[in-house]
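SEQUENCE AND FOLD
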Amino acid sequence: MSVDTNSGLTGAQKAAIIMLSLSEDNATKLFSLMTEEEIKQISYAMSTLGTVRQETVEKLMMEFNNDIAGDVSLLGSLEGTEKLLEKILGKEKVQSIMEEISGPMGKNTWDKLAHVNEDTLSSYLKNEHPQTVALIVSKMTATQASKVLSIMPEDMSFDVMMRMLSIDAVKKEVLDNVERTLRIEFINNLSKTQKQDSNQMLAEIFNNFDRVNEAKYMSMLEEKAPEAADKIKSLMFTFDDLIKVTPQSIQVILRVIDKSKLAIALKGSSDAVKQLFINAMSQRAAKILQEEMEALGPVRIKDVDEAQSGIIKVVKDLATKGDVVIADGSSKDEFIY
């Protein structure tokens, strides 16, 4: 963006130009008198100004009864803004402000929006005012807009389309406010969601490792990234976690799994899980299961892992459908039988 005239500039943009024209020490003093919200607004304006012509700077300075002598031009950039902020704010706070300005996926909010999954985007937009949604959708590509509108409720999608027909030239300040809200409330929060999704994906990968690779890579992860390792372990669901499944749910599981695989899987499980299944069976069925386990003799770890993984997959599918209840171990999940 290149600024050739000060007509139509927002208050934040004018303040940004003034700040950029000052020495770092003077700008620092002014920033220290501002609220965090004011700093964010001016920082965003500074980072998106681009080149500001000398004439524009001079006209703006005259509004504040200050004359600028010499050939002055300014360049507002992310790097310059970050450098200035670091002189008055802690590094962590500066990083937070700069992320709100630039976002996690690129330099332009509308560009970032193009990379967002349509289901995720429609879930956010359906809670917004249709007029706001119409403005946002109008900034999308036709392909993305059609996917988002087809997912949203029919009545709302039609309302949005009708409003798009009547959208005239939108004031830059209005568009900037919508973009800022979208970036702060949705795009920046999306990066946290994506981080959570990556943890969940790694947990699923570890769930599918055989126990040798699981132990090896978890040990490496614990050494290099202990916090991430703890998070992934909390998201994993192992065969011994079946102890968290309610007795009624065990009955459901027993009806659908391959009983021959159960005997192999239980050979490598904890005593608590063995007892959980035995208690859910009739005396005759429990006796048959125990005899099968004894008759198996030594079983390869690989075979046990495969049997357990197959049963875990069935349990997760049942849990997704709501046919199986898995407690999280908190007091609110205690049961009375």
Observations:
- The CA atoms of residues 181 and 269 lie 51 Å apart.
